[in-house]
Design a protein that fits this description.
With about 575 residues, the chain is an all-beta fold. It is about 0% helix and about 45% strand. The strands form nine sheets. Strands 14, 15, 17, 19, 20, 21, 38, 39, 41 and 42 form a ten-stranded antiparallel β-sheet that branches. Strands 4, 7, 9, 11 and 12 form a five-stranded mixed β-sheet that branches.
């Protein structure tokens, strides 16, 4: 260049360097202009294509069936970010795929390169390097294709990337396991309105990776479904309704694709969770004869917790109406027993109102200052919901005067819940002057169904270092709520079911505090205690245990987990 001159190859845009970049092949009029604005005659400059330049590219495709190979019906994905890098990982250029999913990098020198792909939202990476046709497979490993070597003038159009749309689904049913056998028999119905949670388990260690990623509620048949999922490992947990427990027998690994067995294994808080299930496109049983992208085999069996009426301490007589109406009095209506709405045992009670309010009650002698908990299962028909159905705990003096009364409204509609009853609980303290407490059911019309009515003296902490209620005092569906632990404490048992011994796997943020281990049988009876130094795996001997269901508590500081364990 010459001082004071500027240059142009289009007679309009000038620069002082005389260097023009990104010029396509062709002929250009080169002119020079001095500081006075005088322009020279044009000199024709011919720019030829460099036949020695190389290129990389091709297609980002929607791998609809997740097999890692582009099929004729699978289209490209537009707008995907693609980066070209050198061997040191430095980004040399960035582009996005066009409307057909095609991308390309051109004018490259011979040498080694990498290409990275950003996973588009709603997709996951396809399996890499499937099959023998490099023009049809998906090449990235962990998002990057490495070791691409270009010769002089070489065009590599085989660097493709497939992404799987979130097309997988998993689900099925939470059901009322009437006979507690862990199998959904044809006569057993779903449980409506149960909260179900979905967790990721990327390392497939059967422990949820953090908080739930999705939540559903079972429908009018007890069914649920999580859709639009990417391939991977998932854990499902079902929140146990108040007064219910998980089935005693479980079906083990949900990857066995057995529909209708109970997959609940580990109790965490008020939730029972199963093991991890691995979802893979095109391989999941949807309940039909073909394999698709939906797995309908992750089920949970639940049933009422009858521990309160089956252990000593219930102050009521005939709380489950197994012995007719013994112990119960009716006023204004009738009390009978029968079947059809059983929570525990083989019978249930009926409070029937005709033309006026029907009271069904039982009185129990109690001293002032006693704290009592009344619990029981109840429900009514849809019309009965307008008949002021309620359960009451009434403290009375020796003369019969009401000193205090606590009520709970019965809202369970048996017509939309397959005749299943719901648990109701009242806790209250007898005031001064109390001689008796009355447990009462009342309804102004229609019918109230009753079962497993229980009245117990509330138990304070025992002062044994853990300050936990006796196992028989509360349902195991709620026992883990007594101590509120932080996240980062998970426990598993393997194998489960167990024959002679099993290993407790413990994941915790505290690797120094010892753990207390307590084993209870199905009735809540404590059969074994142990204290161990913290270890990620603790072997437990079960050779002398009787066959049946057990609950294994693991306690570390203020954190606690309970595992449901089956001994064969």
């Amino acid at each position: 260049s010459k001082s004071g001159l500027s240059f142009s190859i289009n007679n309009s845009t000038y620069n002082t360097t005389g260097v023009f970049s990104n010029v396509t092949p062709g002929s250009y009029p080169l002119t020079a202009k001095n500081s006075y604005g005088c322009v020279s005659l044009p000199t024709t400059i011919v720019v030829s294509a460099n036949v020695n330049c190389s290129s990389i590219g091709n297609l980002v495709f929607k791998d609809a069936n997740g097999n890692g190979v582009q099929e004729s019906t699978e289209t490209g994905i537009s707008g995907v970010t693609v980066k070209l890098l050198n061997n040191s990982g430095t980004v040399l250029s960035t582009t996005t795929t066009n409307s057909s999913g095609v991308y390309g990098f051109s004018n490259l020198a011979a040498g080694s390169y990498k290409v990275s792909f950003t996973t588009p939202s709603g997709y996951s990476s396809s399996p890499a390097n499937v099959g023998s046709d490099d023009t049809k497979d998906s090449d990235p490993v962990a998002g990057t294709v490495s070791g691409i070597t270009l010769g002089v003038g070489q065009a590599n159009v085989t660097v493709d990337a497939g992404f799987i749309p979130s097309i997988l689904a998993v689900g099925n049913q939470v059901w009322y396991d009437t006979n507690n056998d862990g199998i959904n028999n044809s006569s057993e119905k779903g449980i409506v309105g149960v909260t179900v949670k979905l967790y990721k388990d990327d390392d497939n260690n059967n422990i949820a990776d953090g908080a739930a990623i999705a939540t559903k509620t079972t429908d009018g048949t007890g069914k649920y479904s999580f859709t639009a999922l990417a391939p991977g490992n998932y854990i499902i947990g079902a929140v146990i309704p108040a007064g219910y427990v998980s089935s005693s027998i479980n079906g083990g690994d949900p990857d066995n694709n057995s529909n209708g067995d109970d997959n609940g294994q580990v109790v965490s808080g008020n939730e029972v969770r199963g093991l991890a299930i691995t979802l893979t496109p095109g391989t999941e049983p949807d309940g039909s004869s073909s394999n698709t992208n939906t797995n309908n085999s992750y089920d949970f069996g639940m049933l009422p917790d009858c521990n309160c009426i089956n252990t000593a301490g219930n102050l009521l007589t005939n709380g489950s109406f197994e012995n007719g109406t013994t112990g119960w009095t009716a006023n204004g209506g009738t009390v009978t027993n029968g079947t059809g709405y059983v929570a525990c045992g083989t019978k249930n009670g009926f409070n029937t109102a005709s033309r006026k309010t029907s009271l069904v009650y039982q009185d129990v002698t109690v001293t002032p200052g006693t704290t009592l908990t009344f619990s029981g299962f109840a429900g009514t028909h849809t019309p009965g919901l307008t008949c002021s159905p309620k359960l009451s705990l009434i403290f009375r003096s020796a003369s019969g005067a009401v000193l205090s009364q606590s009520d709970v409204v019965v809202t369970r509609d048996v017509d939309v819940n397959f005749g299943q009853l719901s648990l109701y609980t009242i806790t209250a303290t007898a005031p001064a002057g109390t001689a008796k407490v009355r447990v009462q059911s009342s309804i102004t019309c229609n019918y109230m169904k009753l079962d497993a009515l229980c009245l117990r003296v509330a138990v304070a902490g025992r002062g044994d270092g853990n300050d936990l209620p006796a196992a028989q005092d509360i349902p195991f569906s709620k026992v883990d709520d007594i101590i509120s632990g932080t996240t980062g404490f998970e426990v598993t048992a393997n194998p489960n079911p167990v024959v002679s011994s099993f290993n407790l796997g413990i994941q915790t943020n505290d690797n120094s505090t010892p753990v207390n281990i307590r084993v209870h049988d199905a009735n809540g009876k404590l059969i074994k205690t142990d204290k161990k130094g913290m270890a990620n795996s603790i072997k437990m001997d079960a050779a002398n245990w009787k066959s049946g269901l057990y609950f294994v508590e693991v306690i570390q500081g203020d954190q606690r987990r309970i595992i449901k364990l089956v001994k064969l």
